[in-house]
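Dear colleagues,

As part of the handover before I leave the project, I'm documenting each prediction I ran so the next person doesn't have to rerun anything. This entry is a single chain, and its sequence is reproduced below.
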Amino acid sequence: MQSTPEAQSSDSTAPDFSAVLNVLRMCAFAVRKAVFEASAWSIAGTRAHQYRVDLVADAVAVDCLTRSGMDVLSEESGHHGGAAGMTVVVDPVDGTNNAIRGLPWFATSLCAVDAGGAVASVVLDLTSGTLYDAIRGQGARANGVPLATSSCEHVADAFVGTSGAPERAVPWSSTRSIGSIALALCYVAAGSLDGFVDFDTDVHGVWDYAGALLICHESGAHSTETFGRPLMALRHEARCSPIVAGTESLLADLQRFRTGSVRGDPHGDGRSTSLRND
């Protein structure tokens, strides 16, 4: 099982990524403005599960980030650039189906990645305006207030967020499936959820979780991938099933349950039921 260490304390010798974080914040709020000013949110007709509001949000994000000298990997439009040395992984609207149906759980997720991994990220709750952010080695915040995970150690006591449908009865206390992995993971970072399990297989790209995953790690959370795949693969075709928890013992329990519920080859034709987070 792969697991991440507790969030590191601030290191005065570490690179200063505050300027990168400021660009991400500016971009996220520009996307929010464009989303709520958009005249049409309907199906775009370009590909399955892509809405006009996704394209509006994507155009704003890509323009903002490339003008700031960053490469982009976006769910909606793929790779932009390629020589900047830093790539921002973009989900312009995570939870578009919620937005279309008037449900309040949808967000913009941005994660800046260099050769050493994720360096800064933001997840902006587009309904409430709550801004979750993190810089590598400097902790995570919600609207400037430091975040910390829950201390839940026992799966029977846990409140767990999910995507997709488990194939058998779950061992935890209560389940929440909100239709946005980015926000669900931020709730783990904040201690509102004790953990998160993705029951989908070969469905979610790095843009779905990258921004919130750094926020989780910087709040003290631990993570793994159901099948041992690298969570931060910057390829548009790469898919993962993340598991995250506030404590190592709970992560181990969630992983045991998740891998015990898998049927068949994760790269074959059989897939778990998908409750999409797009």
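The chain is about 25% helix and 20% strand. Helices lie at 18-37, 52-67, 96-100, 181-189, 206-218, 248-260.

All the best with the project,
I.
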